[in-house]
Design goal:
By secondary structure, the protein is of the alpha/beta class. 34% of the residues lie in helices and 10% in strands.
């Protein structure tokens, strides 16, 4: 019996091997003997090196860098590492495929996890995320266990692993959390128990970076020279990578005659051919994505790379997919949209990593600066500790890691800075170790540069194109990694001026708000996430560091494991009659009985009384449908619901039943509802959009009479406050509708970081009117580009600084004024009331009374 099981372990399986540096011919021979011994077959590759996909069931490869990888995934042929065979032999049965995939995007593919003293809720989240990204879980610690997630060394699992000298890493759960946030696997060393570096070393101390293997031969799209072969002995070897391949050099390469002759000689000596036709070639080497040759070859499904990719093939004599390294693929001639005006500096990256980033930034179309000044727009950093990082915070410069520039280039569009993985910096990790792992998005490339699909593909390219269209493998893996890594947006919608608080009598105070670091406000308010919830309920703020790992991981895994959710749903249906899981024979027996009962009911036998019909199950009561929304309103300063959330819920439901929806700030609305003229954020932002303002009496009337009176009869009239603010509301609304949110377009407005009530409210109001809003702090430098005096026909343009008269802020005034005058602009240090009054009137004006020196006297 044992002999039969041994001989049938790989029965009906046919394998083919893909050699690589760590899968040598010697190893292949040993594994082939084991496969044959246990009932399998090993199929050789074809003469041209391609794989016989029609006759095999498994591909054994430790890399995905072989030409037929995409086609094999489309044909659902498993691609596994050589470890899969060893694991299957150790278990006595075929191991699972997923944990042994060579795809580097499955970051935990070689992780076998066991959890020790981790709370159950966090444990479930860590296990689920690990398995979704290619790992395995084992309840018990075995020789195959690679990682134990623990909080201390005292757990029995940990002690047993130490006693039996198992080769496994004992890591804190923080390591998994940081990997999930980034979507990449970082080095475990700083998280290893019993003395984890992240708990004993200050984050500010220097870190020795690990080199990324993915940058080898891929740091530039335009290499100046070709690196020598990996070892001196290979110089005399004949290349095999070009065997039976037709190569085309595009005209946009502009290579000199001598270099072209050398490359031609290498290709022909290796059994390849040079062609000038994109229809005949197998591989096209070009520089840009807009040439005729590039478009034709791409549409025909040819392999397209640049000179850096060609040099890599020659150096390593191994095929590589040019889509798997960003700078191995032809570059966009005019860069990526949105990067043209960007000035980007780099910090905490060194060596090849820094050169790679510099070249990638230039290929994206931005300007790379070695030193950072106040006119820089972004800082790409591997850690958030350096002099440049401190300056970025003071100058309100966006600070991101390299994943932002890599994924923007890979997806051919600038990525939003609110994605949390772009601003995540593990405390004792230099992120240069995970550089170069991002793949280009072929669907985006096709849509932008060669739309329409294949023209008249030949058999081989057509097969590849069909594979690319049928499979969504790239997208699925990316969703898994990015969903597990993506957190919440970088900032929540602010709630500075609560709507139940209205303007005080003196008109100068806003509700108090705690200050935050200015770097948090780098993203425009228009792109923020709007908080949903009660109109008068103050939101609770939970620090991200205090949230449990369960909340973080589950939020990121919501789209990764629908099969787990379905399993849980079916499991709850189990134990239906108390005798075990539902399904199998019990389900079949019930169906059989129901079928028999129906047959007896419909066709009674002669002489047999007809059985009474089973009572029909009462139909579910249809839910009442809500009427269509006719009117959308935003409320501010509404006092009816203050401290009474139950009444608010009931009243909202009544309004919705009448076709009136109370929407959140930032959403389109028909009317703004207020009891009087108030200077809340909601009022000023929506007034800037030209919203018609109704009295809150209209809402009161709707709720009291359950009728919807004509809104035009309830236009807000507040003569007292109109006189106080020096305006006519009707005129302000007309101006706002004409301004279309562009009242302050092009006007620079600075705000001191320590201004009373915080900067968020003023930023939101200013940006709602298209102002250029910036934070000004003690270390802020010049951010005004000087203009020639003769260009100012009407005199120097004004630049404003919102400030108070505290001693700390007074120290900033002179430097701000000097900065403005050097830029040929007129400095105006004003109280925040200037901004509020200008927006309320929807007219740009200025009076000396707003100057801080006069205002607070």
């Amino acid at each position: 019996m044992a002999d039969h099981e041994e001989s049938s372990l790989f029965g009906l399986c046919t394998f083919v091997f893909v050699p690589s540096n760590d899968l040598t011919d010697t190893v292949i021979n040993e594994l082939s003997q084991s496969i044959v011994k246990y009932g399998g077959q090993v199929c050789p590759r074809k003469r041209n090196g391609s794989l016989p996909l029609a006759t095999i069931t498994h591909i054994v490869s430790n890399t995905i860098e072989f030409p037929q990888y995409d086609t094999s995934t489309t044909m659902m042929i498993p691609v596994v590492k050589s470890k899969w065979i060893s694991a299957s032999l150790a278990k006595g049965k075929q191991a699972q495929i997923r944990p042994y995939t060579p795809d580097p995007r499955m970051i935990f593919s070689d992780v076998t996890l066991s959890c020790a003293d981790i709370p159950d809720s966090d444990k479930d989240a860590i296990i689920g995320a690990t398995m979704a990204m290619g790992g395995m879980y084992s309840e018990h610690v075995t020789k195959l266990t690679t990682h134990i997630c623990a909080l201390s060394m005292g757990h029995p699992k940990v002690r047993m692993a130490i006693e039996k000298k198992h080769r496994c890493s004992i890591v804190l759960p923080h390591w998994f959390d940081d990997c999930f946030k980034l979507g990449k696997r970082i080095v475990e060393d700083p998280y290893l128990l019993p003395d984890p570096e992240i708990l004993r070393v200050s984050p500010g101390r220097s870190i020795e970076p690990h080199e990324s293997p993915y940058l080898d031969g891929a740091i530039s799209a335009r290499p100046d020279y070709m690196s020598p072969p990996s070892s001196p002995g290979e110089r005399e070897l004949k290349l095999t990578v070009f065997g039976e391949k037709k190569i085309m050099f595009s005209k946009d390469l502009e290579i000199r005659g001598r270099l072209r002759d050398i490359l031609t000689g290498l290709v022909t000596k290796a059994g390849g051919q040079i062609t000038d036709s994109p229809h005949e070639c197998d591989w096209l080497v070009c520089r840009y994505r807009d040439t005729k040759e590039y478009i034709q070859a791409s549409k025909l499904g040819k392999t397209v790379g640049n000179m850096s990719w060609l040099f890599y093939l020659i150096q390593h004599d191994t095929w590589s997919n040019p889509l798997h390294r960003l700078l191995h693929y032809p570059e966009p001639r005019n860069g990526i949209p949105g990067f043209k005006d960007m000035r980007i500096s780099v910090s905490n990256y060194g060596g090849e990593a820094r050169i790679y980033l510099e070249n990638l930034i230039k290929c994206a179309g931005a300007t790379f600066t070695k030193t950072m000044k106040a006119d820089n727009t972004h800082l790409v950093t591997a850690r958030d500790n350096s002099e440049k990082c401190e300056a970025a915070r003071d100058w309100n410069i966006h600070m991101v890691n390299h994943l932002w520039i890599e994924e923007s280039y890979a997806k051919c569009e600038m990525q939003t800075l609110t994605v949390s993985k772009y601003t995540h910096f593990p405390p004792r990790t230099n992120l240069s170790e995970i550089m170069g792992q991002t793949f280009l998005d072929e669907k985006k490339l096709q849509a932008l540069y060669f739309p329409g699909g294949p023209e008249k593909p030949t058999v081989a390219p057509g097969r590849k194109r069909k594979a690319l269209e049928m499979t969504d493998e790239n997208f699925a893996v990316e969703v898994q990694s990015s969903s597990a890594a993506a957190g919440r947006p970088a900032r929540k919608e602010f709630d500075i001026m609560r709507d139940m608080e209205v303007e005080t009598a003196d008109g100068a105070e806003l509700p108090a708000q705690s200050n935050r670091r200015s770097v948090e406000f780098a993203t425009p308010a228009r792109g923020r996430h709007v908080r949903s919830g009660k109109e008068n309920e103050t939101p609770s703020t939970v620090p991200s560091s205090g949230r449990s790992a369960k909340d973080k991981a589950l939020g990121r895994l919501s789209t990764l494991a629908p099969d787990i959710a379905l399993y849980e749903k079916e499991k709850k249906r189990g134990m239906k009659d108390g005798h075990g899981p539902w399904g199998g024979k019990r389900a079949a027996d019930l169906i059989e009985r129901e079928h028999l009962n129906r047959r007896r009911t419909s066709s009674p036998t002669p002489g047999e009384d007809k059985e009474p019909k089973a009572e029909k199950r009462p139909a579910k009561k249809a839910r009442p449908t809500l009427p269509e929304v006719d009117i959308r309103v935003i409320l501010t300063g509404f006092k009816r619901w203050v401290n009474d959330t139950h009444k608010e819920d009931a009243d909202r439901k009544k309004l919705r039943d009448m076709g009136i929806a109370v929407v959140q700030d930032g959403q389109p609305c028909d009317y703004l509802i207020a009891p009087q003229l108030v200077r809340t954020v909601k009022f000023l932002r929506n007034l800037s959009k030209g919203a018609v303002v109704l009295s809150s009496n209209w809402i009161e009337e709707c709720l009291d009479t359950k009728q919807v009176p004509a809104p035009d009869n309830y236009i807000l009239k507040d003569t007292e406050n109109e006189k106080r603010f020096g305006l006519k509301l009707e005129t302000s609304i007309q101006r706002a509708q004409k301004n279309k949110g562009q009242l302050l377009a092009g006007i620079p407005i600075y705000c001191t970081a320590g201004i009373k009530n915080g900067i968020e409210s003023y930023q939101a109001i200013a940006e709602a009117n298209s102002a250029i809003f910036m934070v000004y702090g003690p270390k802020s430098g010049s951010t005004i580009r000087p203009t020639k005096p003769e260009d100012d026909e009407l005199g120097p343009e004004p630049v404003y600084l919102l400030s108070t008269s505290t001693p700390e802020e007074k120290k900033l005034w002179k430097r701000f004024e000097d900065m403005a005058r050097k830029g040929n602009m007129e400095p105006r240090v004003v109280a925040s009331d200037w901004l509020l009054d200008v927006v309320m009137k929807q007219e740009v004006s200025f009076d000396m009374k707003y100057l801080v020196a006069h205002f607070f006297v």
